[in-house]
Design brief:
binds zinc ion, five-stranded mixed beta sheet, alpha/beta, 9 helices, globular, Beta-carbonic Anhydrase, Chain A
Length: 193
């Protein structure tokens, strides 16, 4: 199967759809989703084919579907404090990429992330330590919270690309893994170039 026909949405088309959805959200300060029975029934009958996988933080100010003006069946979302990547997350990503035919993976960090701040301030106890250790490895000596956020995002992208299955889908079908940061103040998402 050629790259152009493997996915309902190619990685580039999915990325454009996310960008357009975020523009609507950021400019109009408005979010809506059709959760009518008709829509529920449609996805019940035909299954899900989300156009993007979004890995983001559990922060209550970060609502992926709202941020991208997305609805039922649009996004396959994985959330964990600090959007860190572990085996379970990798399994979820591989599932969506391979079984649901999703060709774009976005790691979405955000400004004012408590998990990043915990690492920078050295305050991480209990099980939070496991998350903090991952982030500490990602950010190294970085002290600036915004730069640290980007370093963590890129580190997560690299971890995802260490999956052989993801690598194969990149080479065979043009799957893309891309980092992004959400600004919780103005609602805008900046994608890496
Ligand atoms: Zn966060």
């Amino acid at each position: 199967m050629s790259q152009s026909t493997h996915y309902d949405y190619t990685a580039d088309a999915a990325l454009e759809r996310l960008k357009a959805g975020n523009r609507r959200y950021a400019e109009e300060s408005f979010a809506s989703m059709d959760i009518s029975r008709v829509v529920l029934k449609r996805f019940q009958d035909y299954g899900q084919h989300p156009y993007a996988i979004v890995i983001t933080c559990s922060d209550s100010r970060v609502i992926p579907e709202a941020i991208f003006s997305a609805g039922i069946g649009d996004l396959f979302v994985i959330r964990l404090a600090g959007n860190v990547i572990d085996d379970h997350q990798l399994g979820s990503i591989e599932y969506a990429a391979d079984h649901l035919g999703t060709g774009l993976v976005v790691v979405l960090g955000h400004t004012n992330c408590g998990a990043i701040e915990a690492v920078l301030s050295g305050h991480a106890s209990g099980y939070i330590r496991y998350i903090a250790e991952d982030i500490a490895e990602a950010i190294g000596q970085e002290k600036d919270p915004y730069e640290a956020c980007w370093k963590n995002v890129r580190h997560c992208c690299e971890k995802i690309e260490s999956s052989l299955l993801i690598k194969e889908d990149e080479e065979k079908y043009g799957l893309r893994v891309i980092g992004a940061v959400y600004d919780i103040e103005n609602g805008q998402v900046t994608f890496e170039e």
